[in-house]
């Protein structure tokens, strides 16, 4: 009876995981309207849309040749490849209108959604090794709003999480007999660790525990010093080769170095070529670290208390699972401090904590060590922690740790998916879809018009979604960010005073919570379009107003067209 009950619950878990996996893919295609952070656009899709599709975009400072802080390899391999494919389809007349705001948004996201199933594969592979229930862990993973929302977006943090998962798979190998297998993946560990470092230098914080665990297995399983050295040499050589590939690609991209330029004169020797490359060499992780280790630079992006990751961000992302992990971690810390004291007095060898504790204690180290290292920096955002979902669900799905608080988990993830997948800055993407259709409408094509699009109190609009070629000069985008009333009104009045041409159109995009500001600018508006829902945490709606009949306006984004007779 117990066996039948277990088989029945496993079947329910399989069906539930399949439904959640379908939801992940379907919601990506819908698409999700929530806008999490500008980096989901400006660290890959926006840059590649400008480089490959020749669209008008905004290049962030990290991708300027004067301050290269982001590798171009991963953007090229993800958004770049996808955009090249849809460009080729359009050029071959297989799809005459492949390039539009929908495909520009969804195609890179769809690739990342497909990649997100690397997490599911990793959990399924890792669960038996770490003593977790595979399907319980998979349901926890697939049902988390972090997977549904964050892992379907084009963040470098998403790639960091996938590389972390692959690294954990590589260091966790078991023989069919059940004992730990001899580690043989030195080369791949070197490649993935280096690739992760170039993607985000913070990857070293996530890679530390897996690499130490792998090294402890190597030391325990190898009796020969020669074999031991061989493993580490393979890792170092592959890491160096991977670094050379990234540095070469970034150098060619950021400095526009070409072989023709290098061999421009017949007198150029190989030594001269190498010297030129060395002089122009770009190592983006070092530039990234140099920038972020400066407290003044971090303050420009926002400073937070050092305990923000532990007390706020972990709870915001993982809810009760994070709180339970902290409780378990404190209990195990007390236990192991006592045991280590005994080991120190009674046993002269190494305690072997990593090697012999293949279950919960080591998983907690995989979770809390990166958390502690990331907490050393004053700039702390929730998305920095999304790679930690893997060790957390494996820890939470161990057989001796029943998943309690099921209803709370469901409600928490429903709320998180609604807030971040739909509401948060949720009007901006549909607004850009609407404006793209307006700009490319048949009327605009037959009679060219000039459009001025002014965005105020919204996240930075990704200009690529407007689908405007660099050669087209009939659209101007002005991002006012969170400008005050005086600055905003002065800009609007200046644009209104230059409102002379018969085919000029000025649109102002502003949240409903600050719409009253624009009405005090002494201008009048014609057409109004309200896009719902849109929640701005920088300009949140007031609770008393939400309870009134004006709640839809407060949770909306307005597109206001300036009247000619202002």
From TrEMBL:
InterPro entries recorded: GPI_mannosylTrfase
GO BP annotation list: GPI anchor biosynthetic process
Keywords: Endoplasmic reticulum, Glycosyltransferase, GPI-anchor biosynthesis, Membrane, Signal, Transferase, Transmembrane, Transmembrane helix
A cellular component annotation (GO) from this entry: endoplasmic reticulum membrane
Signal peptide positions (record): 1-28
Pathway linked to the protein: Glycolipid biosynthesis; glycosylphosphatidylinositol-anchor biosynthesis
Compartments (UniProt record): Endoplasmic reticulum membrane
EC primary class: transferase
Coiled-coil zones: none
Membrane-traversing stretches: 98-119, 134-152, 197-219, 231-254, 310-333, 353-378, 384-400, 407-428
Principal localisation: endoplasmic reticulum
EC number(s) recorded for this UniProt protein: 2.4.1.-
Gene Ontology molecular function: any one: alpha-1,2-mannosyltransferase activity
Pfam families in UniProt: Glyco_transf_22
Membrane topology reported for the UniProt record: Multi-pass membrane protein
Family to which the UniProt record says this protein belongs: Belongs to the glycosyltransferase 22 family. PIGZ subfamily.
Protein name per Swiss-Prot or TrEMBL: Mannosyltransferase
Species name: Falcunculus frontatus (Eastern shriketit)
Lineage of origin: Eukaryota, Metazoa, Chordata, Craniata, Vertebrata
């Amino acid at each position: 009876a117990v066996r039948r009950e277990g088989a029945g619950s496993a079947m329910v878990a399989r069906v539930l995981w399949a439904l959640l996996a379908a939801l992940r893919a379907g919601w990506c295609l819908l698409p999700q309207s929530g806008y999490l952070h500008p980096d989901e656009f400006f660290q890959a899709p926006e840059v590649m849309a400008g480089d490959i599709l020749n669209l008008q975009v905004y290049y962030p400072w990290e991708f300027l040749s004067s301050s290269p802080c982001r590798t171009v390899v991963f953007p090229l391999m993800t958004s770049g490849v996808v955009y090249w494919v849809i460009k080729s389809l359009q050029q071959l007349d297989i799809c005459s209108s492949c390039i539009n705001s929908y495909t520009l948004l969804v195609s890179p996201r769809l690739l990342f959604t497909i990649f997100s199933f690397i997490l599911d594969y990793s959990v399924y592979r890792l669960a038996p090794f770490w003593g977790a229930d595979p399907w319980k862990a998979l349901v926890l993973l697939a049902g988390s709003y972090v997977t549904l929302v964050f892992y379907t977006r084009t963040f470098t943090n998403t790639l960091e999480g996938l590389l972390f998962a692959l690294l954990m798979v590589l260091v966790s190998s078991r023989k069919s007999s059940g004992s730990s297998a001899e580690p043989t993946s030195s080369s791949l560990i070197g490649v993935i660790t280096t690739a992760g470092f170039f993607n985000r230098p913070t990857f070293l914080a996530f890679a530390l525990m897996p690499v130490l665990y792998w090294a402890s297995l190597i030391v325990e399983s190898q009796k020969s010093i020669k074999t031991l050295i061989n493993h580490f040499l393979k890792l170092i050589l592959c890491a160096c080769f991977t670094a050379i590939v990234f540095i070469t690609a970034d150098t060619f991209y950021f400095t526009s170095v070409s072989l023709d330029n290098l061999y421009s004169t017949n007198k150029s020797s190989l030594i001269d070529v190498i010297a030129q490359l060395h002089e122009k060499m770009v190592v983006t992780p070092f530039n990234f670290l140099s920038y972020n280790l400066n407290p003044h630079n971090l303050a420009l992006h926002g400073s937070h208390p050092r305990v923000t990751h532990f007390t706020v961000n972990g709870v915001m992302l993982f809810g009760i699972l994070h709180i339970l992990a902290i409780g378990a971690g404190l209990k195990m810390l007390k236990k192991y401090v006592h045991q280590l004291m005994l080991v120190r007095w009674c046993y002269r060898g190494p305690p072997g904590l990593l090697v012999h504790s293949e279950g919960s204690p080591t998983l907690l180290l995989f979770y809390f060590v990166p958390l502690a290292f990331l907490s050393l920096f004053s700039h702390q955002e929730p998305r920095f922690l999304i790679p930690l979902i893997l060790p957390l669900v494996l820890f939470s799905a161990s057989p001796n740790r029943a998943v309690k608080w099921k209803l709370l988990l469901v409600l928490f993830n429903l709320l998180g998916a609604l807030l971040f997948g739909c509401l948060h800055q949720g009007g901006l993407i549909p607004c850009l879809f609407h404006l793209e259709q307006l700009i490319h409408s048949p009327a605009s094509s037959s009679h060219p018009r000039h459009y001025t699009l002014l965005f105020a109190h919204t996240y930075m609009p990704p200009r690529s979604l407007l689908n405007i070629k660099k050669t087209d000069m009939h659209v101007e985008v002005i991002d006012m960010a969170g400008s005050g009333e005086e600055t905003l009104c002065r800009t609007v009045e200046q644009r209104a005073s230059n409102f002379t041409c018969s085919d000029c159109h000025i649109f102002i995009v502003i949240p409903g919570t600050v719409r009253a500001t624009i009405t005090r600018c002494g201008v009048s508006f014609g057409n109004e379009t309200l896009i719902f829902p849109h929640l701005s945490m920088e300009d949140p709606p007031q609770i008393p107003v939400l309870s009134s009949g004006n709640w839809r306006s407060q949770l909306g984004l307005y597109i206001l067209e300036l009247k000619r007779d202002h």
